[in-house]
Amino acid sequence: MTETTIAGRPVDVDAEGFLTDPAAWDRDIAAEIARENGIPELTDRHWQVIDFMRERYLRDGAAPSIRTLGKASGVPVKELYALFPKGPAKLAAKIGGIPKPRGCI
Amino acid sequence: MTSRIVILGGGTGGTLAANRLHRALGDAAEVTVVDQDDRHVYQPGLLFVPFGLAEPEHIVRSRAAQLATGVHMVLAAVDRVDLEQRVVRLIGGGELPYDVLVVATGARLLPQETEGMLGPAWNAQVCTFYDMEGATALRDALADFGGGQLVVNVVDMPIKCPVAPLEFCFLADWFLEERGVRERTEITFATPLDAAFTKPVAAQTLGGLLEEKGIALETEFAIGRVDADAGRIFSWDERELPFDLLVTVPAHGGAAYVERSPGLGDELGFVPCDPHTLRAHAADDVFVLGDASNVPTSKAGSVSHFEGETIVENVRRTLAGDELQPSFDGHANCFIETGFGKALLLDFNYDQEPLTGRYPEPHVGPLPLLRESRMNHLAKLMFEWAYWHVLLPGRELPGISSELQGARR
After folding, report:
1. Are B239 and B294 within one domain?
2. Which CATH number is B242's domain given?
3. Which chain B residues are within 8 Å of A65, Cβ to Cβ?
4. Residue B96, H or E segment
5. How far is CA B262 from CA B80, B215, B255, B290, in A?
6. Which residues of A touch B162 (CB under 8 A)?
7. In terms of pTM, does the model score above 0.80?
8. Which residue among A69, A76, B8, B204 sits deepest, i.e. has the most Cβ atoms within 10 Å of its Cβ?
9. For residue range B207-236, what is the model confidence (pLDDT) as tens digits?
């Protein structure tokens, strides 16, 4: 765990840059993490996924998988890959300030 | 007054829960198990069927025969659970009222969720060893396999026994070597995870074993579709892998009736519950056991066994109107076959990474943790006897604690 500054705020992140405390997150932090990961601007569709991820994490204690996102976030899998290139579940979690999805076990 | 306990599912979890509850509560409770068939498959045995190391008929027994005298068995498919009326409605019209319901219907394979998976090549060039039909078809496919690209792919997590796909790779390496076609075969393990396994410590050991055996590892491969005619699988981010034989672990979901029962399950059909008390979020008189739940630990028989104690105690407390005991810690352990007569052993829980050392006693146990050994392989073979004679009757394995050792809270 290391301390760093994102969008002018001191936050703790893990070795892969995921926030360790979801409560330390805000929407400015999200926008900066997104830019660093090749998403210049977060659209409403991005936010729909990010908000869904956070809501589920805070409710269940685990980040949803790509399949759950595709079924329940309102954004189909193909579009998820367009919005969050490479790994949508992982990237949306990172931008949303929650720990990396572990794919359960 | 006699309490009515209805248990949905007569597999590992449902059977051991029924036997334990019957023993703990005696005449105070009437225990009924519901299942749609009377075939109890020893699921760890499925891994061995494709390699001719287990005969299909030897790993199936009657479900009813595993239940203690006095436990009722109803052979029927569940239509839905009515949480408000506290009644299970059966397909065909019957109904079973309950005071406490235990959901233990496990996980279901959903190959239809992946585009192109089901088709003429299903159970021929595209196989799974996760059910009996598939494991038997794969045995035939492997017997005919003359070399080429063998791809082992996990569609998505969660899956039952998350180490089984790796074990399949290790055993395939051994099997093809024995048959003299290993040289002409490339084995690739394609996983949606970013490493060989979810737990980092184990991922390192297992990743090392793959490399040692010359098995290619393709990570973060989220499969989007199968093109069986072209012999290729494609990921959502447009990578492709050619195959001559595809061994797939299809997407998993909960039992179909869960979706038909308003409020019971999540969008994958698993039943959300408290990870420590195992009480369903949906209702105070519903508990969840084994693969059917959404708890963040492995979907494995060992987990059902370790959950057994918590389930019995909390069902008893619910019937008595007492507070629940949050005693389950996510404990899982599994033997991992690594081929050539060896295996390694993992032991972990919600918070604790797989331990190193010895098992079951931390320093002097006969089985080394997270290391290959012949003893672990023999223990895995002996476990089949313990499964039918100790685990399902709902007894404790001598010296094996429900809580992870060295990780007690």
Report:
1. no
2. 3.50.50.60
3. 156-158
4. strand B95-97
5. 9, 45, 14, 21
6. 105
7. yes
8. B8
9. 899 999 999 999 999 999 999 999 999 999
